[in-house]
Amino acid sequence: MPIIKHRKIFIGISIALVVLSLLAVVIFPPRAGIDFKGGALTEVAYTARPDAAVITAALAKTSVPDAVIQTSGDNEFIVKTHELTEPQKAEILSALNTPDSGMEVKSYNSIGPSIGAELRNKSIIAGILVVLAIIIFIAFAFRRVSKPVSSWRYGLIAVVTLLHDITIPIGIFAILGHFFGVEVDTLFVVAVLTVLGLSVSDTIVVFDRIRENLKNHFSSDFSETVGKSLEQVYPRSINTSLTVILVLLSLVFFGPTSTKYLSLMLAAGMFFGTYSSIFLASPLLVVVEGWQKQKAISKRK
User: Fold this and answer.
1) One domain, residues 88 and 235
2) How many domains does the chain have?
3) What's the pLDDT tens digit per position in 248-259?
4) Residues 165 and 259 occupy one common structural domain
5) Angle of helix 282-300 relative to helix 186-215, nearest 10 degrees?
6) Which domain holds residue 54?
7) Is the per-residue pLDDT at 75 higher than 90?
8) What is the number of other CB atoms lying within 10 angstroms of the CB of residue 192?
């Protein structure tokens, strides 16, 4: 199998992408949305929605010039700002209410900094708990697989691939945040947790086929067993992922603005999750098996 034969190349590509993503996060820290830093979210609808440039210019003249505006649906605007006083709120609504626009305030939500910090902390805890649950589940599911690679190593490699799968999309969003003002909010956290689930599911399918071939004593050569297992599962894995990615990309380009970046995150996570389950997780198993073999030889000497 070429993937196993050239495993160093594919592992190197993954390492390079992760390093670049981490650099992007360090250089361009992700922009926290109001869900995490606190602020106000105003949603207005129009019978005749004015041009976004007109609203942006009107907001720039207020005492809240850093307001962020985005379209929603066919006739709505969503305005994100820091926490507003009553006079500032009235000023914002006045700027949004252009002549003959027929504006209606659909919702106004204010989130304090303490609530934002609580949401951020709970999101981090949720991510940690998901990763721990995945390790425990894989270690349990593969508990009867002890040779040539221990069951807990399957769980560890799965976590490595998960970190790979979420680090790269986060790096992409850090770049989008710097150049296009894209913010990280609770929808982003939902996307990350979803990516974790999708990615580990794909990885388990590959690992399960390896386990079955080991039980059936397909070959005494572990790398050959892994290669054959990949040949058996990768067409289905790629076809399934490609179908989902195409649907998500259609939502990115043709769906509502409110779910545009959620769909983009899911598409990126799905792509790199499929890549890691085939080109990273399985080659890492072969690398670990090689290290164990070398260690055993050294001990005998």
Assistant:
1) no
2) 2
3) 999 888 877 777
4) yes
5) 50
6) 39-111
7) no
8) 22
